Amino acid sequence: MRNIQFLIFFGIVISIHLLINFYIFSRGLRTFEPGSQIRTIYIIIYWFLALSYIVGRVLERYYLCKISDFLTWTGSFWLAAMLYLFLIVVSFDLARLVNHFIPFFNKLLPISLLQKPYFLTYFVGAVVFLLIAIGHLNAIFPRTHFVNIDLEGKITNQKQLKIAMVSDIHLGTIVANIRTQRIVNLINATNPDVILLAGDIVDEDLSPVIKRNLGKTLTQLKAPLGVYGITGNHEYIGGVEPAVKYLEDHGIKVLRDTMIELVENVYVAGREDIQGHRFGGKPRKSLKDIIQQKNDSSTIILLDHQPAAINEAIQNQIDLMLSGHTHHGQLWPLNYITKAVYLVSWGSKKFENTHVYVSSGIGSWGPPVRIGNRPEVVVITLNFNK
What we know:
Elements: H1 2-29, H2 37-62, H3 66-101, H4 105-108, H5 111-115, H6 118-140, E1 143-152, E2 160-166, H7 177-188, E3 194-197, H8 207-211, H9 215-218, E4 227-229, H10 233-238, H11 240-249, E5 253-254, E6 258-263, E7 266-270, H12 287-290, E8 299-303, H13 310-315, E9 320-323, H14 335-341, E10 347-351, E11 354-358, E12 376-385
Parallel strand pairs: 1-12, 2-3, 3-4, 4-5, 7-8, 8-9, 9-11
Antiparallel strand pairs: 2-12, 6-7, 10-11
Helix pairs in contact: 1-2, 1-3, 2-3, 3-6
């Protein structure tokens, strides 16, 4: 059943990928003269870029090598380029439609561009290339975001609790040793009391993580109260049991619909990913069942990868809910979609007595590119006012 769902899901994704690419390709092809050498070069380069991600990801499942890495990296950058090329091409098609009824191209566009439209293709390609390069630099240098939260009426022997929280590392071919080391160094530099990883720690394919021993870098994470994580949808897509075992073998305690007492009367609860049952997992427990040992003076910190059950957290009087998953769109303007889908797409918000923080994530999925948002380590200081 899981394999059938997996094939259906990726069949739909690949079909959409190919249709969008054909649309962009056909518009670019029109700008080159039939039979010209540059037209042939365009066809070869375009379809190499368009197919490289699919071929690279399939190849690395069977034979992880430099060729699979090159194809995956090339295709990953193309995914970001494809989004912006699609938006530009759609904009031009809409402009052409308007021009059909209200001619304005001859007045606004240079004659040389009208006579040699391939200049426009070159210009658009250069703009998108520059945009992707800037977005890549933004993606590989995360920031540290500090948040202070005051909690009243909680009984504990702590005055403060300093939490370093990250989500969506996506360890794998794209987020490998150098980038992971940078993430670990940034987390450790905050000197947290506890480190919480809010899901999608590994990408869906575990083989690059194992072969390159990326988990060894995670063992460098240091916090007096430990390192805890939860499952995300990508742990389930790739096979949750091997992923969890790998993480626990490398120093991360994975909370799976369980709760632990971190310090006196301060608990951390971790939920299974809400979509886990779609990829062969069991339906997750209700939040009420997970936190049944709490009392009114307890502080409950909840890790829930997708911010889809905020209302359930409010109903169960969770003090702090930490999530990720959204990447805040990762590539503008996709953040408008995540804002429409979730109560919180990124940042902190308080609902009644429940504080919610949704991280934009620290890694990236697909393109190693971020435009319109920043990757982050979130440092949350809980102040207990007795």
